[in-house]
Write a structure and sequence with these properties.
Layout: E1 3-12, H1 16-25, E2 36-37, E3 41-45, E4 58-64, H2 81-84, E5 92-94, E6 97-100, H3 110-120, E7 126-130, E8 142-147, E9 152-157, E10 160-165, H4 176-185, E11 191-194, H5 201-209, E12 214-219, H6 222-234, E13 241-245, H7 251-258, E14 264-267, H8 273-283, E15 289-297, H9 301-314, E16 317-331, E17 334-345
Parallel strand pairs: 6-7, 11-12, 11-14, 12-13, 14-15
Antiparallel strand pairs: 1-3, 1-4, 2-3, 5-6, 7-8, 9-10, 15-17, 16-17
Bound molecules: S-adenosylmethionine.
């Protein structure tokens, strides 16, 4: 039996299939190695690029090789040798659309690259190259390089369906485990306010799995809210969830109109959530939790937590607990972080 040493994700068997699909969708699986099993756990061999994701329990072990090694999209391409190493090893798959960042040296080969990806990913119908998300409404330029000319797709996550327009709205499939983690923290009698909801993946995950009293989801992007409303219907959570096209600056008016004092506030607007933090402090229930997200240099994390604490003091509040975790890297030493903050009010 031929074996190979590899990094692997250690995951409870009950979460195995969900995780395998996630790893496959992010091109992280080592398909030439067999998955190992213990009584309670699966050990799924993965590529080194898993280190971009910080949510996984990683181990190193030796794995049996599969008889047939499945060809990768890189194998189907005939590129000059100096360009081969620049081919992306990981990319996002949202629904049936691959989103790819191509270095400029590879732009003139984009059509061949797109066609190779279509051949090696049977469930994919469109391959796009993407520019970084930009602007307040977090849109991005998308260029279809192979397959069907479309930017709208349906993405499945933890048994939920999200309709997404990858051009007009923000959605990250990499936050799936984070959304599930938050839904596990929320109690049945909770009131949840999702300040920057996008197509409402946090709101719907929480509504479905935590079954709180009510979820109010807000976004300034009209396209996002239309999709959020569709997704709420599609996932049968309209009994406790609404999506409103509004500016989060009007939070006090929105909450007073709906007569809710949130026990949990989701603030997923990296780079700018800090500006809205005073507003969240003013409306959160005593001992409620703010789930705050930011993109930040590793060396600035402590400073940001201190800034959050001193902002709280100005609003007669104390941050009882600030639990920070790194969700993913987006540049060397730069992290997408989440902080669960418990607020005590005087
Ligand atoms: C990073 S996306 C997060 C979307 C969603 N929470 C998710 O996880 O997919 C941030 C969202 O905030 C919205 N946004 C930006 N400024 C806003 C504001 N002042 N009020 C409400 N929404 C805003 C954008 O339109 C965008 O959909």
């Amino acid at each position: 039996m031929e074996t190979e040493e590899s990094l692997a994700v250690k995951i409870k068997k009950t979460e195995g299939e969900q995780t395998r699909v996630f790893l496959r969708n992010h091109n992280l699986l080592k398909s030439n190695l067999k998955i190992k099993r213990s009584t309670d756990y699966l050990f799924i061999p993965v590529k080194e690029s898993i280190k971009d994701f910080d949510n996984f329990n990683l181990v190193t072990d030796s794995f049996e090789k599969t008889k047939q090694s499945i060809s990768t999209y890189q194998h189907l391409l005939n590129l000059p040798i100096e360009l081969q190493s620049q081919l992306p090893t990981s990319f996002d798959i949202i629904g049936d659309i691959i989103l790819l960042k191509l270095p400029k040296e590879l732009q003139s080969y984009s059509k061949e690259i797109g066609r190779a990806l279509l051949k090696t990913h049977a469930h994919v119908n469109t391959v796009c190259t993407i520019d970084p998300v930009s602007g307040e409404l977090r849109r991005r330029n998308v260029h279809v390089i192979a397959g069907k000319q479309k930017t709208v797709t349906n993405h499945k996550e933890y048994g939920l369906w999200f309709k997404v327009d990858v051009e007009k709205t923000y959605f990250s499939s990499r936050l799936a485990t984070e959304r599930k983690r938050i839904s596990n923290l929320i109690e049945k009698n909770a009131f949840v306010y999702d300040m920057f909801c996008g197509v409402a993946p946090f709101s719907i995950m929480i509504a479905k799995y935590a079954q709180p009293k009510q979820v109010i989801a807000v976004d300034k992007n009209h396209d996002a809210i239309k999709l959020a409303q569709h997704n709420i219907q599609k996932n049968n959570v309209s009994n406790n969830t609404i999506a409103i096209h509004e500016d989060a600056l009007n939070t006090k008016q929105i909450l007073s109109y709906h007569k809710i004092i949130p026990t949990h506030i989701i603030m997923n607007l990296p780079f700018s959530a800090f500006e809205f933090f005073p507003l969240a402090l003013q409306v959160i229930k005593n001992n409620g939790m703010i789930h705050y997200y930011d993109m930040i240099d590793e060396n600035s994390i402590e400073k940001r937590i201190d800034q959050l604490k001193s902002t709280a003091q100005k609003y007669d509040s104390t941050l009882l607990e600030t639990t920070m975790h790194k969700i993913k890297t987006y540049a060397p030493h730069e992290f997408y972080i989440g902080i669960d903050i418990t607020v005590s009010k005087k």
